[in-house]
Design goal:
By secondary structure, the protein is an all-alpha fold. The protein has 3 helices and no strands. Helix 1 (3-34) runs antiparallel to helix 2 (41-85) and helix 2 crosses helix 3 (87-106).
Length: 108
């Protein structure tokens, strides 16, 4: 497998992880709000720990998202540079992909 394919696969996985993590954070925040009226020292301690964990998770998520955006921008710049440096290679690759897609659609 090529390094580019692995990198693209990792980026998709990271994007999915970021999206899933946002859902988990939203659910945890909703749970904290729902239990805000519950009393007791143990509940208050658990709620404080959860809020701290959520805060740390949000920071890590923001960092991961920023890193993912930077990698995406770098990949876009590299692709743009490649197309400008070797336009006929890019045309050939696009034509090849179009041919394969056309063949696959034609088989249906």
């Amino acid at each position: 497998m090529s390094t580019d394919h692995l990198s693209a696969s990792n980026d998709v996985t990271k994007e999915q992880l970021v999206a899933d993590f946002k859902v988990v954070i939203a659910d945890a925040e909703a749970l904290l709000k729902a239990t805000a009226n519950q009393g007791g020292e143990a509940f208050a301690s658990l709620r404080a720990k959860t809020e701290e964990s959520l805060s740390a998770a949000k920071e890590k998520l923001a960092d991961a998202q920023d890193a993912l955006i930077e990698k995406t921008k770098a990949a876009a710049i590299a692709t743009d540079d490649y197309v400008h440096d070797k336009p006929w290679h890019a045309v050939g690759i696009a034509a090849g992909i179009g041919l394969v897609v056309g063949l696959l659609i034609g088989r249906r």
